[in-house]
Amino acid sequence: MLLLTGLISILGGRAQQRKDSGPVYFTGTASGLYMEFNEVTVARMGLTVMRKGKADTDYIPVGKTTRPTSSADFHRRMSEAVDLFPGYSLPALELTDSLWQVWNGEDAASLLGARSPIIHLALGLGFLDTGVVTSQTYLYQFVSETDGAHFESERVIYERTLPLFSPMKSTVVDAGESRPHLEWQSDRANGAMQFDVWRRISGSSADFEKLLTPSGMVVNAKGDSLTYLVTDTTALSGVRYDYYLSGRDVFGNPGNPSDTVTLQVGGRRNIEAAFNVQTQAVDNGIRLYWEPLEQRYALQNIVILRSAVYDGGYETIATVPVTDTAYIDPDVLGGKNYYYQLLIQGEANFSQASPRVSGIYQGIVKLLPPQNLEGKDTHEGGRLSWYYADTTNLRGFYVYRTLSTTLPLEQVSGLLPPTAGLNTYIDSAQLAADGHAYYTVAAVSTTQSLSPPADIIEVLRTGKSEAVRLTAPSQLRPLWLTDTTVSITWLDLLARSDKVMAYRIYRKDAEEGEFEEKAWLETDMNEVVDTLSSGKQRWYTIRSVDASGALSAPSPVVAIASQYHRPLPPGNVRLVVSDDGIVVNWDTDGESSKIHSYRIYRALVNGGTETIAEVESTGEQLGYMDKAVKSGNRYYYYVSSIDEHGIESDVSEEVSITMP
Fold it and tell me: Please, are residues 185 and 171 in contact by the beta-carbon 8 Å criterion?
């Protein structure tokens, strides 16, 4: 926000607006015709502002300027004016007091160069006429409240001022790993005091859109140049974007743009923290393990920190390569709790610390039994399958068998290498045998200790091959995560079948025609997330895949259409009393081309709300004259937008006024 970065920037006097030699000068703004007086004595005496338009026979009063009575009154007046100009925020009370002391001292004239309409309106040095109409010509007369003396202006045409700033040239284009950082620079003399950021996907035919993302300005050490800083927190990795800035003056009027820069997200600036850090007691200490790191080319080391307490005292105990996914801390005491964090070291900086995790050294590794043990009769022999989720401290498995429930189980396999998830074993020794066989499986730890055995299962041998057909995915359900992001889930077959190893997702952009032979995406999750822009529609189908690459039949096709956005309500609704009634004015937004009309609502304190008019959209600022009002009544007004499809927005903020 612009107001106020300090007395230096306020009183520095950037020459963005021309200061006329006469007693008053005018500037067209989005909120109305702003006029500013060049003498402190004029502001302190107070003025009645009179206006005469082309159709007026005489001047009519449009408002007054008055002098604030205290620092608190000065601050209150700035709070009332702050919403009239985009990019401003209310100054702190300490800054208000400093400005108030200047205004009441010998250097009061220095505030004439503050170039801040918020300050000038609050002091009576400025006046904003919100009742003017674009391209119309006006004369103004200013009458002193002290002695009745008056002076008049030259003819003024109300048109929005288009300032010309010093050129803004790009100096830094840093793609970052996930958040691009950009910088532009210009001369401070006549530099833009505010700016907007615009972005589009590079190479697309879409128009640039205003980007709401962290931004700011800094002055260099010499004080002769400005740097405009932008960090894009909404960019998607791997996407190429075009960016440019457009400057705005102290009144919010847009000026000349900067040069356009292009980048693709995915550099080396930001470093992601370690993910899913966990601990487990092993026979020789506490073992830490974590997910493999991405973007290894931009990283240097993994730093491991440890503390005996949760809240502080962390010290480095090891530095390991970025390709590592585990570390054993041997310097621990039995039964004592320790806390760990990981830092990822990049080329020039560190990541944020990972979430803190705790671990206790126990000295013995205890494993869970294998889960979901199943058996099938195949032409190769009895085929067993089971699940084991965590392979930490796991050396493998032993398979046990008996041919009778009255005989003990005997080990029939060597040590089977472990796999996280589905594990299999074929008992080929029973290839030619018929009859019943009973099996169980136990996990083997790194210390040769055994887990409890899995449940015993029975396999009936017939010596025949069993053909198993893959099941097609079903129960597809779409869920909108945001206005443009949709999630599609389906029944998870990986947890129900030892044949299904993955899913292939196919999509198309038209209802007619077949899906492409090549899958759009392959995943081992039963969920896929896609982005659909406004007005977009897509069709999806999914197939199961086994270890050999064989496919199931396609799932039912699901069609998804993007969500429709309601229009935004009008902004900055204002009321002005005239001789004929109450004038309701409002501003449009950046999508005014999509707005068909505006609907005006009116209400009394003790009455219901009623629709009084509907006005067609014609430009940036619109208005309506409500003549059906009575003296002494207080009226409340709301305005809504109606788009080209007849969809109505929410109503604007309430504004009210009393008819004198």
Answer: yes
The whole-angstrom separation of Cα 79 and Cα 521 is 54
* Side-chain half-sphere exposure of 345, counting CA atoms within 13 A: 13
pLDDT at 10 over 60: no
For the entire predicted model, the pTM comes to 0.38
Q: How is residue 126 written in tokens? A: 């400025």
Q: Single out the residue of 233, 222, 224 nearest to residue 182, CA to CA.
A: 233
Whole-angstrom Cα distance, residue 621 to residue 342? 55
Sign of the CA dihedral running 198, 201, 202, 203: negative
The gap from C-alpha 53 to its chain's centroid, in whole angstroms, comes to 47
Task: Kindly tell me the burial class for residue 174, based on how many C-beta atoms sit within 10 Å of its own C-beta (0-12, 13-18, 19 or more).
Answer: middle
Q: Give the length of the chain.
A: 660
Q: Is the pLDDT confidence value at 257 over 90?
A: yes
In the predicted model, is pLDDT for residue 523 greater than 80? yes
> 656: which strand partners?
636
Per-residue tokens: 352: 């944020």
Of 277, 285, 279, nearest to 447 (Cα)?
285
Alpha carbons 240 and 263: distance in angstroms, whole number: 6
**What is d(CA 114, CA 40) in angstroms, rounded to the nearest whole number?**
13
Q: Which residues of 162-173 are buried (b: 16+ CB within 10 A; e: fewer)?
A: ebebbbbebeee
Tokens representing 145?
């409240």
* Confidence label for 19 from pLDDT (cuts 50, 70 and 90): very low
Whether 505 contacts 540, CB under 8 Å:
yes
Tens of pLDDT, residue by residue over 549-567, are: 888 888 888 999 876 677 8
Examine residue 575 and say whether the peptide bond preceding it is cis (omega within 30 degrees of 0).
no
